[in-house]
Amino acid sequence: MDYRIRSANARLVPIGPHCSVPRRTLLARRFSLPLRNRRQELDAVLLRGASPLLPAMAAAARPLPLVLLIVSRCTQGIDDLPQPWWRKNLIRLWAGVNERQQNKVAMRALTFVNSRQYYNELKERLPQLRETRTTTLSAGDFFEREDTCQQPPYHLLFAGRMDRGKGLLEIVEALAMLVGAGQDVVLDLVGWPEPGDPVLEEVQALAARKGIADCVLYHGRKSIGPELFACYKQADLFVVASKTAEGFPRTIWEAMAHSVPVVATTVGAIPHHVGGAAALVPPNDATALAKAIRALLADPPRRQELIRRGRRLASNMTLEIQSRQMVAEIKSWIERSR
């Protein structure tokens, strides 16, 4: 909840504490009660998923027109969880049931997804499916510069959840290779620890074993806006090494808007959305990641080209543009539903 809602016509209605997934599932009807009580005030309901509460919220919304915004898979990242095998299998079983319920809801809803891969999977099954871009970037947030990497040490930036699925350990492995090859680089980590995932401690332990503890700097969580954007302005390269498919990290748009060249992995919607505006490498490959970073550090024309392409691409992905398109689709859906 680090994004400040600027619209005067938005109200925040609490539904209850953010507790464990089993508790949310068992008490779903209680959590959906505020929606049920306000149903007469509403023209449509927009639900974000994946969520253990989505099926219950959809039931509470009946008979209103329903809109879904799906930004992740229920089954995504289970193999990377720091859990024993038997618990992973239980989570996988629950996630499969929840995803089937979500897809059943989507059959009668207008559904937006921010992943081309997920869109291609669902387009033959869902009658009202749309692809969208999720972002917090506004037109006034852009920062223009011609190039980065003007003086060492060169700063590699990762911003987002401290989640092992983001490839943080692979980024540290790549950093160790770069330092071992004589590159003067540091890694800046910005974001919040994921509950139950000790990957940040593992990152620090790995850096210590590799002898690069002083080159890995954790700056904590930064609020979206000037505090976070200052980190992009100081960065030389932005690195995201996601291991499994995801929608699309909004941080890539933020980096591009701040004229930071991007190195990312070929998972989820990333290859489709960025095209030739980022250096792409396979997931789970620290060697390829280090090679791509080293190539950009040594090639100013290539960096400058990625900066220009990225900024141009991000200019069409602002919150104003994307939300305007989504609102138009929702209005049309309400009229058709009537």
Concise overview:
With 338 residues, the protein is of the alpha/beta class. The protein has helices spanning 21-26, 28-37, 54-61, 85-106, 116-122, 168-180, 199-209, 226-233, 250-257, 270-274, 286-297, 300-314, 319-337; strands at 45-49, 66-70, 110-113, 129-131, 154-159, 185-190, 216-218, 237-240, 262-265, 279-281.
Question: What does this 3D model show about the protein?
Answer:
The protein is an alpha/beta fold and 338 residues long. The protein has two domains: 134 residues, no CATH class; 176 residues, Rossmann fold, CATH 3.40.50.2000. The chain contains 13 helices and ten strands. The strands form two sheets. It has a six-stranded parallel β-sheet with strand order 7-6-5-8-9-10, with helices on both faces. Helix 10 links the parallel strand 9 and strand 10. Helix 9 crosses helix 12. It is globular, with a radius of gyration of 21 Å.
| CATH architecture label name of the largest domain | 3-Layer(aba) Sandwich
> What would you give as the CATH superfamily of the largest domain?
Glycogen Phosphorylase B
What fraction of the residues are assigned to beta strands by DSSP? 5-15%
Largest sheet at a glance?
Answer: 6 strands, parallel
User: Can you tell me the residue ranges where pLDDT is under 50 for at least 5 consecutive residues?
Assistant: none
**Overall spatial form:** globular
The helix content, as a percent range, equals 40-55%
Number of helices: 13
At the first level of CATH, the class of the largest domain is: Alpha Beta
CA(first)-CA(last) distance: 34 Å
- In total, the number of domains comes to 2
CATH topology of the largest domain: the name is: Rossmann fold
Number of DSSP strands? 10
SS class: alpha/beta
Overall mean pLDDT: 91
Order of helices and strands: HHEHEHEHEEHEHEHEHEHEHHH
Cross-sheet strand order for the largest sheet? 7-6-5-8-9-10
- Please give the radius of gyration in angstroms: 21 Å
